[in-house]
Specification:
Length: about 170
């Protein structure tokens, strides 16, 4: 029969082994956790090397988009003869430029992307508001003048606000 003393001796022998096993498990687990952290850090650094140039390119493309949809830039490139044709051409250009750059939203913050969308929408509204009181068959010069007049009334053009947002973000990146 097993005596209580034998049980205590066995427990004295077993306790250090269990403690040692727990300590080894903790150390090995810590090693694996540290190794996993190092691997994640390497991956983040590698991704940054790939993503940073893409993000910068996205910001560049959005700056170009904003410059192209300013009323002045739109009107300079137009060859329309009537107000109706000019309005249609300007709206098509704005939407095409924007759609061409839709994927850039993947690389910029939601704030920057919203400022670009707001600039696009505001410019469309500006063109439509300028055109609503002009006969569609009138010379395009009338609509051009009205668009520029409405743009000059603004304290700060919306495209400039969006450009400032993009520049602020770029400064934060670099």
């Amino acid at each position: 029969m097993v005596e209580f003393k034998d049980f205590i001796d066995f427990f004295k022998f077993l306790t250090p082994s269990v403690v040692m096993l727990i300590a080894v498990a903790y150390l090995v687990g810590g090693h694996f956790r540290d190794n996993e952290k190092r691997q994640k850090l390497k991956l983040v650094r590698a991704n940054k090397k790939l993503i940073t140039p893409l993000r910068l390119q996205a910001y560049e493309r959005l700056v170009l988009l904003l410059e192209r949809i300013t009323p002045e830039a739109l009107l300079i490139r137009s060859g329309a003869k009537t107000c109706e044709a000019l309005q249609r051409e300007l709206l098509h250009t704005i939407r095409t430029e924007f759609e061409h750059n839709l994927t850039q939203q993947l690389y910029v913050t939601p704030e920057a992307w919203n400022s670009v969308k707001n600039a696009k929408n505001f410019t469309i509204t500006l063109v439509n508001n300028a055109a609503k009181d002009i006969d569609g068959s009138a010379p395009a010069m009338l609509l051009s003048k009205k668009i520029l007049d409405k743009a000059m009334e603004l304290e700060q053009p919306i495209t400039e606000k969006a450009l400032n947002e993009i520049k602020r973000e770029i400064r934060q990146l670099f």
